[in-house]
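[agent] plan:
  1. take the single chain provided in the ticket
  2. run structure prediction with default settings
  3. attach structure tokens to the ticket
  4. add a short note for the reviewer (M.T.)
[agent] executing step 1
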Amino acid sequence: MRRLLWWSLVAAAMAVAAMTGSCEADLIKVGGKQGWRPDVNYTEWAMSEDFYVGDWLYFIFDKHYFTVFEVNETNYKRCSEKEFITNITKGGRDVFNLAQERPYYFLSSGGYCWHGMRLAINVTSHMPPAAPAPSPSKTKSAADQKMPSISPIVLSVIVFLCPLLFNFFFFPV
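[agent] step 2 finished; step 3 output follows
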């Protein structure tokens, strides 16, 4: 039993070490502090953001009035949710995983797209080389910065290891 526990710990530690640098993803609040609502310039907002494969978009909106659909470029330009790719609307606090390197297009139905509720982004697979730190006067406010997140795989490993470590140290066999 002790040997099995030891090898489980070693395998889990190796998995965490291998994934730590390569599985980072960000949770990006669409629109920053303004969220997903009419009369926001999402094109301007998106120009100040970087979107990478694995990141998550976080849409915050009033589900009684607004929706979020992923659409193709043609329907984005037409402000049409017909033949949408994905209906992201679930409860007004919805997330969407940017799983592929490609352009993504989102909009709200019911005419709200014509009031600015549409977003076009380009997702890239690799982060560019690190740039020098910005001067303090050019840093973003805390509300506009990306929220850090933990990889679901790393979280699963941690959840798996906690009970094992507890039993190993407090109830040795």
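[agent] step 4 note for reviewer: The radius of gyration is 21 Å.
[agent] ticket updated
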